[in-house]
Amino acid sequence: MEVINTSGRRKTSVARIYMTPGQGNITINGKDIKAYFPSEVLQTIVNQPLKTLDSIGKYDIKANLKGGGVSGQAEALRLAIAKALVVENAESKSALRKEGFVTRDPRMVERKKFGKRKARRSFQFSKR
Questions:
Q1: How many CB atoms lie within 10 A of CB 80?
Q2: Crossing angle, helix 70-88 and helix 40-52, to 10 degrees?
Q3: Stated pTM of the model
Q4: Would you state the pLDDT for residue 2?
Q5: In the chain, which residues have pLDDT < 70?
Q6: CA-to-CA distance for 42 and 23, rounded, in angstroms?
């Protein structure tokens, strides 16, 4: 198996990964995963596809993350890892799909409309 290159997206975040067989090192934008995502919850989100297939410690992953916030980046990285695992072994797709890791989450922030304070919130109405 050579290098597997996939990408994942969530909200405005984009994750591009390069997965190779290795010791389980995950490097994000040149930093270790524990330095990039100090929160244990975000590290768990990133490792969910690997944990589902019992592949933790089998692959080295180098990721480039861009845009969005930390939770969007973590979920974009999760999607990219799941897609890479499907490319590596097509039979694993059903297990990952059952957990919902292969589907791209289409929810985005609704744009602000003119004449409104936010997307739907109006300014306070005063009758008098």
A1: 28
A2: 10
A3: 0.90
A4: 87
A5: 1
A6: 21
- Tokens coding 91: 């039979």
CATH code, residues 4-99: 3.30.230.10
Cα 75 from Cα 19, distance rounded (Å) = 17
CA atoms within 13 A on the CB side of 86: 17
In what helix (H) or strand (E) does residue 10 lie, and over which residues does it extend? strand 4-10
Where would I find the H helices in the chain? 33-36, 40-52, 70-88, 93-99
pLDDT of residue 128: 86
- Neighbour count for residue 97 (Cβ, 10 Å): 13
What burial class does residue 90 get, using C-beta atoms within 10 Å of its C-beta: 0-12 exposed, 13-18 middle, 19+ buried?
A: exposed
* CA torsion, ordered 46, 50, 51, 53, to nearest 10 deg: 150
- Structure confidence at residue 1 (pLDDT): 67
